Batch of 2 targets.
Target 1
Amino acid sequence: MKDFISKKVIYIGLAAILVAVLAAVTMALTGGSAGFAAMLSEPFFKPVKSAMTSLVGSLEHIYGYLYRYDELETENAALKVRVAQLEQEYREYTEINEENSRLRSLLGFVERHEEMKLEPATLISWTASNFSSSFTASKGSSSGIELYDPVVDEYGYLVGQVTSVTDSTCVVSTVIDTTLSLGAQMSENGETGVAGGDFELLKQGDLKLSYIGDSTDVVIGSTVVTSGSGGVYPAGLVIGSVSGVAVSSSGLDPYAIVEPAADIENLVHIYVIRDFAVSE
Amino acid sequence: MLRRKNSAPVKALILAPYLLILYILQSTLFTHIELLGVKPLLLPVAAAGISLFCGRVEGGVFGLFAGILMDLSYNQLTVQFTLLLTFLGVLLGLLSDTVLVQGFPSFLLSCVLELALISVYQVLSAAVLHSAPMAAAAGVGLRQTAYSLLFSLPVYYFSRFYCRVTRQGRGI
């Protein structure tokens, strides 16, 4: 036994415990908003991860092009007579136009919600976990972002909530993550419920609207918005639309399956709502 | 004696970039390359390789750092993988020092053991903390283990090569 548990092995064990203690102390000092490993490593990993994400984006673009080459060739042949028009359309689909479009959408959202203070950020990397849905974004507490701030896309569709913050980054848990739940209502009939992630719906990218009454008239396609109860989220943010109705495994609780309005998988730019007027 | 003194920095110089490359790949590239709806775990496979070929001390140290990076790549504040991979690094190193033969079958067995234990932990966490159905969570765990095992071959050759080189350095 003495041979197996040598001094070095004991030191390794102590080091692991030290890391755990440091993490616990850091969490206690930051009010559970940041881990000590993340705080130490972020200056190094943030630029590397950003560069890798950009590289992966380029590779995906090339892969997508190769994959759809035959399809594009056929389509191109049929549209040859409209070359001039295609060139015009090509120019319209440049990156600058996309950016303009995104900003115009945001401007519309901001004009409708002047009371909100938004902080733009970009997605750095997704979680490696198969059991959750979260990503790291490029802004942190130095930009005024705080724990539990809501996050939307450029159209104002709800993306998720900030669940940890360091100085220059934050982690956003998306609306389909199983840890997230929020007050919601169907805009058509005003019926309220609790929207949140569900493990079985996670892989298909949906969430569920629970605690709806047996007699509630759930219409497929109904828009689900935040209710604003609790004051964490502003009222009226679009979460998604009802794509189906199901019953829990106990057979007692009906729930609606909600398809998020935000394109979670293809997010690039996000906006953190730093402040808003609470209306209850 | 001089070689022995210098072996730790040399090992760190080789293993640190290895760890960082695997971490960057796991947390960026492979979050976009899903197979059967899951993403692979590279760091536990690498930790199993170092434990098997280099023993409990290096296995434990490598497991400690691999665990810290695993927790980072999972965007979580807690340190469960830091503790789990350190423990598994020492445990597999002990088995390697005593009963396991240092070959590919043993390495594969070590990888399966490490990945299966991680999956069991994740499945139980999902079931207990987030009311996930056990069957669905276990399915994800199984697919995650299977996908991650695809990376065992390159990791096996690197780990074997690394330990041969550093053992020569130590004059063993």
Note: Chain B has a mean pLDDT of 87.
Target 2
Amino acid sequence: MRTKHFIFSALFGCTFAVVLSSCDSFLDITPTGRVIASTGEEYRDMLTNEYKSFSKDRYMTTIRTDELRLTGQTSSDDRDSYLDLWLWKDENPSPTTTYFSWRNYYHSIYIANYIIEHQDEIKDAAVKDVRQLVGEAYMMRAYNHFLLVNLYAEPYTHCTPATTRGVPMMLEANVNAIPPSSSVEAVYQQVLADISAAADYLNVAQWPEGKNYRFTTVSADALRARTYLYMGRWQDALTVAERVIAAHGELEDLNVATSLLPDNFKSAENIVALEQFSSNMSTVINFPSTDFINKYRTGDQRKSKYFKKATSTTYSLIKKDENSYCSFRSAEAYLTAAEAAAQLNDLPKAINLLKPLMQKRLNSSAYGTTLTLMESMTQAELLEEIYDERARELAFEGHRWYDLRRTTQPALTHTFAGETYTLTPEKYTMRFPTEAVESNPEIERW
Amino acid sequence: MGKLKLIFFALLVSLTAVAQERTITGTIMDGEIANEPLIGATVSAGVGTMRKGTVTDYDGHFTLKVSADITALTVSYMGYESKVVNLKAGTNNYTVTLMPDSKSMNEVVVTGYQNIDRRKLTAAVSRLDISDEAVGAVKNIDQALSGQIAGLSTVTASGAPGAPVKIRIRGTASINGVQEPLWVLDGIPMEGNEIPAVDNLNDIDDIYQTSIAGLSPSDIDNITVLKDAAATAIYGARAANGVIVITTKKGKEGRPVVNFSTKLTYNPKADISRLNLLNADEKVDLELDLLSSDYTYRQNKGDVAIILNDLGETAAYKAGGWDALSATAQQRINHLRTINTDWNDILFRDVFNQEYNASVSGGSERAHYYASAGYYNEQGTVIGVENNRFNVTLKTDFQINKMLKIGVSLFANQRKQSSYMTDTGGFTNPVFYSRRANPYFEPYDSEGAYNYDHNVQGRESEVPDFNIYEESLNTSKERTDRSVVAIFDAELKLHKYLKLTTQFGYQYDNYQASRYAGQNSYAMRKAKEYATYTVNGVKQTILPDGGMTKKSDSNANQWTWKAMLEWARRIQDIHDVEVMAGTEVRHTESEALTSTAYGYDNHTLTTQPVIFPSEDIARSYPLHEESHLENAFVSWFATGSYTLLYRYTLGGSIRFDGSDVFGVAKQYRYLPLYSVSGLWRAKEEKWLRRVKWLDELSLRASYGIQGNIDKNTSPYLIGTFKRYSILPGYVETVIVTETAPNPDLRWEKTRNVNVGLNLAFLHNRIRLGVDYYYRKSTDLISSRKLPLETGFASTTVNWASMQNEGWEVALNTLNVKTADFSWSTSVNLGFNTNKVLNETVAENSTYPGREGYPVGALFAYETAGVDSEGYPLFRAKDGSVQTAAEFFQLNKFGASTLTAEEQRNLYTYMGSEDPACSGGLINNFEYKNWQLGVNFIFNLGMKVRVQPSYSPTYYDRGLNTNHDILNRWTPSNTATDQPALLVNSVARGSEYTHFSEYNTYSMLDTWVKSCSYWRLQSVRLGYKLPKEWFQRLGVSSASVSLEGRNLLVLATDYHNFLDPETMGNPYAQPITKSFIFGFNLNF
């Protein structure tokens, strides 16, 4: 009995000991598919996700412009999703209306901040690669703030930036922050500062095809040029845009049958092949407005490359295909430089800057007549011509809304079911999304 | 009673005094407590009129004169086994020791780890013996607990067959984590009993099954509910919400006993007339009214608008009214008034349900066995809803030798549930549709073909065809659960005082869910419409012809192994020491697979490929998804108790839990949880033994710490791997990070104090248990809404501390007891007051914090009727009446310019969602072979927020609603508090935008209702058939019963709603009445 007793106790004790010693390994289960980033590759994968989910709002603003029309042909789904945006009925949109995002931008900013803050802890990566990644993170932060301030705050050129409410800025990865809105000026200054920081870090001039959605050294100047342009800092815009042209001035020649559309991600013209239309919008954008089509002159190759005749009077869009991805491309730099030069009243320079672009877009006879026409223009007329050229060139690439609001803010009208709606200047600025105000009322207080 | 007996005995003694006598003296001792005399024990001799007797005095002595021919004495004492003492010639002094009655002696409390003698029990536990008489005809074991146990409240969120019951023990202790108690089956904690929170009210349709739903109540012997820390600390972190221990039936020594029982149930269809919906006449009038008003939301909806649009007379009607309409239009509209479809009648049905159980059990000294099989089938009163269960139980134990005992049990079951497919709008839910369908809509035309209801759906223009009958015929949703629990246990008696027990439990749950939508269904039409894209310039749906099938298969298994070493010793019959230490290892694993196919034909089982135009689109139609989750846990625990003279017990327990949880800071891997407790059985004190009317008086006290950690939040930024292509043709790995990290997250802890009193009087005819508890929870974990600028929508934080304080009263009385008749009553009451002690209100929150209020606090805006344009008016804190623009200081966007704190202060406290008092009242009457049970449950003093009857900016005229809309403000009906249907205007644009864009309207005090109810849960009449009737057939007993469940609800005002329990949810199936015939046979 006593021996038995001892044996059992020993057995029990052993089991206990085994359990004790093996339990730490028993508890070390690595869950399938989950990870805490530590290597360079993993940090890159995190940023890749932000590229993947990058806001498509800039393209969606097309709905609010004069580029397209909603017609009886528009599907009921599309009408439910987009009609109230098209009619600028922001005060009581139907509950089915699609909305512009908010958190999406800030999630990208969070990850950008996270990468910036953790850059020294990134393992298994070359210094050069880490620096490029951090540079891209700065660009990510700058570009998201830039898009936010231009969607939800008054245009820099139509307000007193220092005292006008901008958007909240997030400069740290902090889930406990309750940020107030910053002034328009402060946001722009931060965007410029982030671009400068990015420029210090970025070292990849050109990503191979397939990865060319990522920010590059040229993209820093491309965003800087656009920022100066939106601020009305003409001399700076001109200088930087010319730098972009020097570094990445390639243009697709639309007179050549085999040329790619300039917003194709494979196009030589593409600098950052990131933004695109959401696939939900594939049908609604199919109806360019007649007025917009009429902006193209005879001999403009874009009219037939971007659009196709649907009926005797209407066109449909072919520019937006599955390969259209574009945030920055060479043509924008030419247009920015030209607009800045025209604003500085250096009209010959402005025209010279437009020449390479027009050569690639117009057939030779149209090129000649347009050039003659431009040379006869006053400053105001030339500016108007450049605005139109910008509209024609960057059609359906999400530029139009921003260009309209920063320049003349025309009182566009949209007519639906016999009723006419007018785009008044205050509607060029959208209100903060309800859910954003609900989760942080501070942002509305100014 | 006792006195009467004494007088009677005295009389007997004097009558027989003449006979030859001898005097017997002696002492009666208590066998339970050494060297203690038994006071008041009865000593008697003889039979009939010759019978005489006495009772022992304070020292346990007695003196009794008996006639010489008496050869034996009978000694008895309440709660002790009677003893017969043979008188020996010449010996006139006897010392007799009585042993406590084996029934009460064996009364042990099963905690799942230990069986504790009730006389040493320091914890707050309640036990419920499961029998038809006690709990009535319940389908699932969770329903059986309703109203039976003080401090345990149950909420039936839906009347759907198989819908789980939400159980809360002693209020809510945790906000975020699991709030369900831990279920333990014969010692093995069960997995898969969390009831997911219903975030979207419509989700209530989701078929859900807990693992305990697989057990048949007829296999269960009793249930023990562990309530305080002294009882639950041994279970560790999982027991923070209490523990429910199920003990299943086992075989008893003796010949095989065969039992057969059946229950046949009739459920009449629900009655929705309580909803006060508009009839056809009223609905047509409403639509005509709205068409001539400026209210334009969904103005083309409703059959009136459809007719007028069809005839092109809308403009004419708007300009000239009814008289401007053509005769055809008037006739067609008037025809609508005559229809009045009774949706109640055609969407619900009377059902007949059945349940059968058979078991055989028995055993010998060396082995016991129990085997059973059962089947039950329940059809819902909602057409298309059904639930059934097959289950088999095998249970044996063997006494191998003096040292070793082994047990094996197996529980297997299969459950199948059928329901309808749900859609986001909720229209395919017959309960919801019956509230929204127009009374003038007929589901079939005169030839029997489907009419389609085009008024449903969120979209205003063309909608897919919807007919609820076609839908229920062409769609289905089924879930089949298969589950096996196997338990092996062994007990090795190593030594007189030392015992080693080990138990291994394996639980396997599999479920297969299938959803099917046929070609001719609204679900499919809608799916196809959503999947419409422009491909090569042609707009078309990418889904092939045919239906859709979606199947998911989920497997979850867990194993638990525990080993315990117990040392128990009684020293000199004075000291009792028990010590136990053990370890437990648990491993859980689950995997799920979902597969979807389109172009499905359910006759040929063929599918067709989907040609996706782009990868982006293909991503939104995942055809195959898999997941895998694995967790491991290791724990150590120990308990100890010391008892002196069965009067004083001191106990304690401690447990360490460790788990593998990923990304949890190391210092939080192990958490010690412990308790200390004591018991004083005052009745056993000498000075109380004399008090004969008192049968029990004992006091309990315990203190302990329970804890919980949130497994989903990590101090680190955790990501999930995915594969995507950003640019066409180039696939890349991404890490998705959608959970906000929180480095400051700590364990949430609850300190428990419990003080309890057990009393029994008058020969146990009145038994009273009272418990007071105080639970203070600190560092509570909850989800908090984050400013979206942080990049995340919400995170988990330690936000608050709160207390639950309450009383539990369980009173059992035997009111009348005669030879043929008895009446007993059982009342149990739970009073719980919950208070949030402090709360860090998020600075960005516009809803008030609950500091100083209960956790279920409801806040609302105080209203002051409507103004001269029908806009809601608010009463500000200074008493003034303000418009929304003034109250919220709205800007031009309709957003408030007040700070978050100022917005919080606009709210007024309305009350708590949790009942102030809940409990049950059970009465049992027995007369000869008849038994009648009447069982009420009640929940008193709570508030509920209901959905507004209609939205003033988004009322959809295409749908039906209740009568409130007829009382809305209009220029001709200004004496009302129901707002107008609002129209945007320049003057009140900001208010209009505010009401349409923000949630303000549903937060008005109008929508917070008082709710208190009594529900007559069960009335059951049973009859035991006289034995003579069937003795020849070999039947040993048989009984029949008739029961009515949910026959009556007494409640505060719940007009416009079906049940007080489901007021807050318009999608919930009604709780139906049922009538059950039961039959039980024993061989």
Note: Chain B has 18 helices and 48 strands.
